[in-house]
Amino acid sequence: MHDPVLPSTARTLLARTARVQRDGRAPSLVAGVVREAGLAWSAGRGAVPEPHTDVQYRLGSISKTVTAIAVMRLRDEGRLHLDDPFERHVPGTPLGDRTVGQLLAHVAGAAAESPGGWWERTPGGSLEDLGLADEHVVLGAARRFHYSNLGFGLLGELVARLRGRAWEDVVRDEVLAPLGMTRTTPRPVAPAAEGHAVHPWADVVLPEPEHDAGVMAAAGQLWATLADLARFAVFLLGDTGEVLDPATLEEMTVPAGVDPSAPGWSAYGLGLQVLRIDGRTLIGHGGSMPGFLAGVFVDREERAGAVSLANTTSGLDPLLPGLLADLRAAEPHVVQPWTPSPSPVPLDTLGVWFWGPAPYLLRALPGGLLHLGPMPGRAGRASRFARRPDGTWVGLDGYYAGEPLRIAEDHLDLGTFVFTRVPYDPTAPVPGGVDQRGWRH
């Protein structure tokens, strides 16, 4: 264990895990909490071989995040762009006009499942074997979030074609092996749990089938141990090693498609789920396959994560948000001390600016960033900004994400909005001009 939790915290975490396994009637369940150094606590419940951290379970859709990382590596190398039409890299599908980025964010309008027999319970073949047709495009491009296993099967094909190797070989060599996830494989390698369905009205189980999913493997076929999944949580906390630029990981966590049907705030970035639960933002992915449930989520502000694997098809209450809440309550993260840092702009540039009559505050943030937002107690748009090489600034989030900010002596020019030092300064280039009669009563 790395940086282990206190004994009292371990008892609390174990109690929650044990209750979820018993009440959900999972044949076996392994779970853990993660800090930046690695697995800080773990436990196995039910019929789990020891060591419980080295038993493989199916990851299901967590495989999608691994696939997305492989795609983003290609993007960072200049081999593709997120706005590329899929046809440019994998010709001949009915989704050819949809973009790579839309497929990553589940906003390409692709059918939820691949055609033919339910791919999670039947052997799979090649892309050509799927026999895709126009009917497998079910929504317009970027119209709405629509989770698509088919879309990630296609992304796995894209990775394979651009690398000239099978998807499973690419993710092993480029993602899993560099992260030390040597017990994560496309098919089970003993010791591995057997997948089960649990009868809804009796305490009996039924084995679930397991096959090679072919082209659909990229959507959910990987198996992993709790130790490997914990390493992946550390990756999501920012220890990306040589696998991915931290800025690219940050890009993947920005919500692109939002699921309005979820209770609470739920969204999807580029191969990552983004959940807002009890005021906390969790980044990661859940997974389910016949016989298995899995999850990995991290709270990057708290610098902690939680992981779980079970061999049951359904029926478990959510475990990971509770484990993170227990850890946060018992052993909250202690932030680094504040220290002075240079301002990225002259101090007299900071302070109050007015958008029309509305006062806004421009202030410096650590890391050379700026923040422009409404005065405390007032409503309005807020964004952080980073400096560009040409001296201008670009919005990082909020309403002004991607918008240019130019700082002049007497005004700020932000995406055609002009902020002035006094409300509607007649000497500044206010769009539409300022009435020469000035303020009056």
UniProtKB/TrEMBL annotation:
InterPro entries in the record: AmpC-like (IPR050491), Beta-lactam-related (IPR001466), Beta-lactam/transpept-like (IPR012338), DUF7586 (IPR056008)
Ranges of residues in domain Beta-lactamase-related: 21-315
DUF7586 domain ranges (all copies): 346-421
Protein name: CubicO group peptidase, beta-lactamase class C family
Species for this entry: Geodermatophilus ruber
Lineage: Bacteria, Bacillati, Actinomycetota, Actinomycetes, Geodermatophilales
